[in-house]
Design goal:
single chain, mainly beta, lipopolysaccharide transport protein A fold, 2 helices, 13 strands
Length: 222
């Protein structure tokens, strides 16, 4: 038996490093612009294979869960949220925890991870914290330039600021060009990244740039 519900609304691093990254990755308009606003005010739909209500802990657990709101979609093997006493299941101010084959789609961006926590306020997704080994991010439909790909042990995606912080073996790449480091902060709207290493772990920032003439030479040799 499936469960279907629908709800309607009632510096990490210094600036010179950011500039350096703009040389590595062309600063072009992002296809994921103001991710929060693309869903604000739209109905939220929840679809699940089954659900269990734990009255003692006021928790609802869903299996085979799918949540969608406009161009935002979330899927996972399971999801759980806590309901305040006397309140109904709602997204006005809630935290949802997802586990198992978690997929988060925000317009053209795709996140794949093992577990995630999503924070809703005023019926709008505000923030997503994800973990994986590694968690993966991909934006394959940018208006120009090559797709952006990233991976890290943890992401903190702030939709209100349109930025993602990647931490733990973080890597961001555009084609053959890439930056790796302990901590990367990606500004989606501006297509900029601030980055730093970790002196405690000895993890340093590493930048790989493939010149255009070398790319053309490699292509002609094929």
């Amino acid at each position: 038996m499936r469960t279907e519900l629908s709800f309607s609304r009632t510096s990490v691093a210094n600036s010179c490093r950011s500039v350096l990254f703009c040389v590595v990755f062309a600063a072009v308009p992002a296809s994921v612009t103001n991710a929060q606003s693309i869903a604000e005010g739209l109905p939220i739909s929840l679809d699940a294979d089954s659900s269990i209500f734990d009255r003692r802990n006021n928790q609802v657990t869903f299996s085979g869960l799918r949540i969608s709101q406009g161009a935002i979609g979330v899927e996972a093997d399971s999801g759980v949220t806590t309901i305040s006493r006397g309140a109904n299941l709602d997204f006005a101010d809630s935290v949802w925890k997802f586990a198992g084959n978690v997929r988060i789609d925000i317009e053209s961006a795709r996140i794949r991870c093992d577990a995630a926590e999503l924070y809703f306020r005023d019926h709008t997704l505000q923030r997503a914290n994800v973990e994986g080994q590694p968690a993966q991010f991909n934006d394959a439909a940018r208006r120009s330039g090559l797709p952006i790909e990233a991976e890290a042990n943890k992401f903190e995606y702030d939709l209100t600021k349109s930025e993602i912080r990647f931490s733990g073996n973080a890597r961001i790449a555009e084609g053959d060009n890439e930056v790796t480091g302990a901590d990367l902060l990606y500004d989606i709207d501006q297509q900029r990244v601030n980055f730093r290493g970790d002196s405690d772990s000895g993890e340093r920032v590493k930048i790989t740039i493939v010149p255009e003439d070398l790319k053309r030479r490699d292509d002609s040799d094929r």
